[in-house]
């Protein structure tokens, strides 16, 4: 019985968060959901991809089944009426389903094109589906191909190479200045979600110690504790600097992140010169997330001081995002080529049973004809007998050759 | 035969000089896989050619300006490969490889008519090689300082609107600039000491009042001074480039002083 590849789903472009959250499957329930999907009538193989931006069912089913079966699964499993889901659904079959899967794995269908998490999420879904026996022959091959395509896209294009969030742009810039962040010291002045996030990113990338300064000492202690706790097992030396001693300690930091609510500048050009003198001209990177700004932009003119404010970071992130868009065009070409290659391979595989049948039939005819002549061939020596065998085999192969070639070539077959 | 190997080396240096542009400036790894092997191959051909030349002439040191030039190019190519091996950056190749190609081009296509007056001792060979190594380190350091300046300007300009050019981190460039100088100092010191010792035994006291020789010692003082300033004050960026450029011009002056030297020059055959 012939099979059909069907992909049914919703994503951030077709469904609002209110719908997506009702269909989202927690990681702990993914195995159960996949098993339930596999038990739906007509489903031979299946995989569920559930992330915050998409829920997709990839299935291999008997050709006569319609997507309404999958819709019923969604309806029953999530207890969400089909009428609520239907307007947001998209469905791809065969070639288009392959293309969609390749695009998703390569992060070309993501909200932030090129983000790296999606490939890991697809791999997680694949692992779960394999464990419950929902993925074996065809889907297994397809998913392995999708991982290869994603790897090609990542290595042959720059689609995922530039940072597009404020925190990762900050890390990127720090790397351009210091190379490795290993052993570097961060000074966090003031409080704020974004500055704490940037500090966390920098520590995760290797920074060894953090100094925290706040007008309220207790608040500084709390921030230091929060950051240290969020880093996990990585040992981080945290030190609280009383706000009145700030200038005496700033030169110790390689990276300064400021986000105070101060109406005036905290760090001026003169401060920059002072810090650099104390550091024997080792560079300093100021990340000013405060509005109004904490760091005088003039400090950027001091040799060795690099000052980036929130606008600079946002513009860099936006420019990187635009870059990704350009690279995505090259990535789409890779995906198209890979889809065509995959289809070609499938068609070749489809012809295998026919080829085998043809060869078996020819062999049977050869054997029958030789058997008819058995009494007349009995006078032959073993060498002569072998020569006749070889001749008939060769004749059969030559007669079959044009038909076998046509069967192996999908273009000639169609 | 040696000339053929040298011409092959020139061709390969040329290919590497072109391939290094997209590799270094636009971070295209495929081009790096052309530039680096081409440089390695060119270096090997160049080395074979150089060794064959010396062997054929039955001497163990470069005896004319072209051979010296060729040796300088060989050392520059080696320096590029060592920097790539240690820091995984090909950025310096943007400046270095064309210089290497040009330095090799002349010996490969124009025969030389000059010989070194003191071409008779293994000590002189060491003197030449060590001083050339010192020059190579200085050139490398100057290029790294220039690269530092470019990268610093780009970061200060917040150049997200400029074309996507990928340069090594500032810290890496600074390390290259300082470490090459630190490596070059013992080479230059030993080179000068050996040269002086040989000169004292062959030319005598007159050697030490020669303008070329005096300039050489001034060059050494400038070299030491530059390292001292860079280490003590952590000099980087614009001022480091000024300092390196000054010392580089002193070196060029010392090189050019062959023309005015009575005891240290290349003579006609």
Architecture overview:
The complex is a heterodimer of chains A (414) and B (269). Chain A is an alpha/beta fold and 414 residues long. Chain A has two domains: 3-156, Beta Polymerase, domain 2, CATH 3.30.460.30; 166-317, 3-Layer(aba) Sandwich (Rossmann fold), CATH 3.40.50.720. Helices cover 55% and strands 15% of the residues of chain A. Chain A is built from 17 helices and ten strands. Chain B has two domains: 1-112; 114-269, no CATH class. Helix content of chain B is 75%, strand content 2%. Chain B contains eight helices and two strands. Chain B has helices spanning 2-25, 29-56, 65-87, 93-109, 122-156, 170-202, 211-233, 237-256, and strands at residues 114-116, 266-268. In chain B, helix 2 packs antiparallel against helix 3 (65-87). Chain B is flat, with a radius of gyration of 19 Å. The two termini of chain B are 22 Å apart. The mean pLDDT of chain B is 81. Classes of the chains: A alpha/beta (414), B mainly alpha (269). Chain A binds chain B through residues 158, 173, 175-180, 279-283, 300-301, 303-304, 306, 308, 312, 315-316, 319-320, 323, and chain B through 27, 151-152, 155-156, 158, 160-161, 164, 168-172, 232-239.
Helices and strands in order:
The complex is a heterodimer of chains A (about 425) and B (about 270).
Chain A: E1 3-11, H1 17-23, H2 30-38, E2 43-50, E3 54-62, H3 68-78, H4 82-85, E4 90-93, H5 94-105, H6 117-131, H7 138-156, H8 166-178, E5 185-190, H9 193-204, E6 209-214, H10 217-231, E7 237-242, H11 246-249, E8 255-259, H12 269-278, E9 284-288, E10 305-309, H13 310-350, H14 352-372, H15 374-377, H16 382-408, H17 410-413
Parallel strand pairs in A: 5-6, 5-8, 6-7, 8-9, 9-10
Antiparallel strand pairs in A: 1-3, 1-4, 2-3
Helix pairs in contact in A: 2-6, 5-7, 5-13, 6-7, 7-13, 8-9, 9-10, 14-16
Chain B: H1 2-25, H2 29-56, H3 65-87, H4 93-109, E1 114-116, H5 122-156, H6 170-202, H7 211-233, H8 237-256, E2 266-268
Antiparallel strand pairs in B: 1-2
Helix pairs in contact in B: 1-2, 1-4, 2-3, 3-4, 3-5, 5-6, 5-8, 6-7, 7-8
């Amino acid at each position: 019985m012939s099979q059909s590849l069907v992909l049914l789903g919703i994503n951030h472009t077709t469904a609002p968060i209110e719908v997506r959250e009702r269909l989202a499957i927690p990681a702990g329930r993914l195995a159960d959901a996949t098993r339930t999907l596999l038990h739906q009538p007509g489903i031979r193989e299946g995989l569920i991809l559930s992330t915050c931006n998409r829920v997709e069912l990839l299935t291999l089913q008997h050709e006569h089944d319609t997507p309404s079966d999958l819709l019923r699964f969604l309806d029953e499993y999530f207890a969400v009426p089909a009428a609520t889901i239907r307007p947001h659904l998209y469905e791809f079959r065969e070639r288009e389903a392959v293309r969609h899967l390749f695009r998703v794995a390569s992060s070309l269908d993501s909200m932030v094109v090129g983000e790296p998490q999606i490939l890991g999420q697809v791999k997680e879904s694949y692992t779960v589906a394999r464990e419950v026996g929902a993925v074996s022959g065809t889907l297994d091959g397809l998913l392995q191909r999708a991982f290869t395509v994603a790897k090609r896209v990542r290595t042959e294009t720059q689609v995922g190479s530039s940072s597009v969030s404020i925190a990762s742009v900050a890390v990127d810039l720090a790397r351009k200045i210091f190379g490795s962040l290993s052993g570097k010291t961060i000074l966090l002045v003031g409080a704020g979600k974004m500055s704490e996030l940037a500090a966390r990113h920098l520590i995760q990338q290797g920074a060894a110690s953090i100094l925290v300064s706040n007008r309220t000492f207790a608040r500084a202690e709390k921030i230091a504790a929060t950051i240290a706790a969020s880093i996990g097992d990585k040992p981080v030396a945290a030190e609280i600097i009383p706000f009145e001693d700030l200038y005496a300690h700033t030169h110790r930091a390689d990276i300064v992140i400021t986000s105070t609510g101060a109406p005036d500048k905290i760090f001026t050009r003169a401060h920059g010169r002072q810090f650099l003198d104390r550091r024997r001209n080792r560079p300093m990177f100021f990340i000013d997330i405060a509005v109004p700004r904490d760091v005088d932009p003039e400090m950027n003119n001091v040799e060795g001081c690099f000052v980036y404010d929130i606008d600079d970071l946002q513009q860099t992130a936006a420019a990187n995002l635009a870059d990704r868009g350009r690279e995505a065009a090259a990535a789409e070409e890779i995906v198209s080529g890979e889809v065509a290659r995959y289809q070609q391979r499938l068609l070749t595989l489809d012809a295998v049973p026919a080829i085998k049948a043809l060869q078996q039939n020819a062999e049977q005819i050869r054997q029958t004809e030789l058997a008819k002549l058995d009494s007349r061939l009995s006078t032959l020596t073993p060498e002569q007998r072998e020569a006749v065998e070889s001749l008939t085999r060769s004749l059969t192969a030559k007669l079959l050759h044009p038909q076998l070639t046509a069967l192996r070539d999908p273009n000639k077959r169609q | 035969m040696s000339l053929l190997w040298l011409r092959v080396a020139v061709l390969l240096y040329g290919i590497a000089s072109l391939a290094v542009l997209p590799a270094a400036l636009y971070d295209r790894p495929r081009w790096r896989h052309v530039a680096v092997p081409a440089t390695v191959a060119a270096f090997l051909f160049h080395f074979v050619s150089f060794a064959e030349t010396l062997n054929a002439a039955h001497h163990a040191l470069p005896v004319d300006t072209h051979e010296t030039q060729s040796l300088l190019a060989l050392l520059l190519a080696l320096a590029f490969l060592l920097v790539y091996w240690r820091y995984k950056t090909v950025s310096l190749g943007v400046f270095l490889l064309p210089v290497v190609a040009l330095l090799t081009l002349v010996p490969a296509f124009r025969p030389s008519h000059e010989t070194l007056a003191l071409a008779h001792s293994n000590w002189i060979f060491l003197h030449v090689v060590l001083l050339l190594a010192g020059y190579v380190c200085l050139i490398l350091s100057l290029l790294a300082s220039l690269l530092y300046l470019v990268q610093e300007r780009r970061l200060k300009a917040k150049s997200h609107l400029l074309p996507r050019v990928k340069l090594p981190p500032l810290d890496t460039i600074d390390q290259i600039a300082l470490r090459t100088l630190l490596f070059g100092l013992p080479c230059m010191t030993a080179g000068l000491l050996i040269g002086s010792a040989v000169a004292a035994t062959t030319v005598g006291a007159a050697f030490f009042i020669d303008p070329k020789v005096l300039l050489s010692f001034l060059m050494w003082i400038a070299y030491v001074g530059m390292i001292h300033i860079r280490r003590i004050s952590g000099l980087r960026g614009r001022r480091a480039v000024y300092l390196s450029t000054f010392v580089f011009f002193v070196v060029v002056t010392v090189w050019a002083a062959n023309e005015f030297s009575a005891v240290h020059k290349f003579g006609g055959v």
